[in-house]
């Protein structure tokens, strides 16, 4: 039985319709794909992003902010979205398992991720959250929220960005490992985990959103996962993406792909963190990581789709 950590983006849960009903429907569709790992005999660990959800929740909090009902801070909103998305996944996965004749427990775990209080990311917001805005919307948005940092997000529109410190440790990893060893399917580190810093015996929340791929990589290392799989709507990894000479990789060694990371050839808001997180896992464990499309899960399991990143320095195999 292979232990596989699967990381899902928040955009895979929320598209244009931000209602709970629409997101639950998307989660149910995703669960049908994820159950294929369990049917294959694998032990599954699920992580997910929350960028769209936490940004939308912040907007709701700020819109209702008053002295009697003050808005919740970003770290608490992160915990709230962990709970809601975890609830959706827990129920959807359990239902789909039973539909396939599999009686296996599923558990969502509110997860805290320890970060460095002096991480330079706190001074350089980079993590996109919330809805996409058109360029014509920007004057009004900046007028309403003069303290926001806004960037263009990978050709998809403009979004607010917040600090995104790197994870140092997953506070609940030992408990997560026990849950995995018991054969339970855990849903962990939602949105990268709630960012906290250690102060003696206390954990203090920080207003930030951790990249879920880095946290997934850290969890995969800590629980001795056999494979890290990062599922995205963009498919596998390309060299020269979007150019006439673009090449989709089938298998690549970490030394080869590191050269392209160092040359900043991947989009910072989308593919770059995925590739960096995958390389960190492979470098630490020697086990492979795969980046591929959610709709190709069956083919990824069979090794026919996605980009596999391995430790040995092999020439890049292309599709």
Automatic annotation (TrEMBL):
A Gene Ontology BP annotation from the UniProt entry: L-arginine deiminase pathway
Coiled coil ranges: none
UniProt keyword Aminoacyl-tRNA synthetase present: no
GO cellular component: cytosol
CDD domains: AAK_CK
Record key words, sorted: Arginine metabolism, Kinase, Transferase
Ranges where the Aspartate/glutamate/uridylate kinase domain occurs: 3-292
Pathways per UniProt: Metabolic intermediate metabolism; carbamoyl phosphate degradation; CO(2) and NH(3) from carbamoyl phosphate: step 1/1
Single annotated GO MF: carbamate kinase activity
Reactions mediated catalytically: hydrogencarbonate + NH4(+) + ATP = carbamoyl phosphate + ADP + H2O + H(+)
UniProt record similarity statement: Belongs to the carbamate kinase family.
PANTHER family on file: CARBAMATE KINASE, CARBAMATE KINASE-RELATED
Protein name (Swiss-Prot/TrEMBL): Carbamate kinase
Species assigned in the record: Lentilactobacillus buchneri subsp. silagei CD034
Gene coding for it: arcc3
């Amino acid at each position: 039985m292979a232990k596989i950590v699967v990381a899902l983006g928040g955009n895979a849960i929320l598209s244009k319709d931000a209602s709970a009903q629409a997101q639950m429907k998307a989660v149910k569709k995703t669960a049908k794909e994820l159950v294929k790992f369990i049917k294959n005999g694998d032990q599954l660990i699920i992580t997910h992003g929350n960028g769209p959800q936490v940004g939308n929740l912040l907007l709701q909090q700020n819109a209702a902010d008053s002295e009697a009902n003050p808005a919740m801070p970003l770290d608490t909103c992160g915990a709230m979205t962990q709970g809601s998305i975890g609830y959706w996944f827990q129920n959807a996965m359990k239902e789909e398992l039973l539909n396939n004749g599999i009686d296996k427990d599923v558990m969502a775990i509110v997860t805290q991720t320890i970060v460095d209080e002096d991480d330079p990311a706190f001074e350089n917001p980079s993590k996109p959250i919330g809805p996409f805005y058109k360029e014509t919307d920007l004057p009004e948005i900046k007028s309403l929220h003069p303290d926001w940092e806004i960037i263009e997000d990978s050709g998809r529109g403009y979004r607010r960005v917040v600090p995104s410190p790197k994870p140092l440790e997953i506070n609940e990893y030992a408990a997560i490992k026990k849950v995995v060893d018991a054969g339970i399917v855990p849903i962990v580190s939602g949105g990268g985990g709630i960012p906290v810093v250690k102060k003696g015996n206390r954990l203090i929340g920080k207003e930030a959103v951790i990249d879920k791929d880095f946290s997934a990589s850290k969890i995969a290392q800590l629980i001795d996962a056999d494979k890290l799989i990062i599922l995205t709507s963009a498919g596998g990894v390309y060299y020269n993406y979007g150019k006439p000479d673009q090449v989709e990789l089938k298998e690549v060694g970490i030394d080869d792909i590191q050269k392209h990371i160092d040359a900043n050839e991947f989009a910072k808001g989308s593919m770059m963190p995925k590739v960096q997180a995958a390389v960190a896992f492979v470098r630490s464990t020697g086990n492979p990581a795969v980046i591929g499309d959610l709709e190709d899960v069956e083919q990824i399991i069979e090794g026919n789709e996605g980009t596999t990143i391995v430790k040995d320095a092999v020439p890049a195999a292309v599709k």
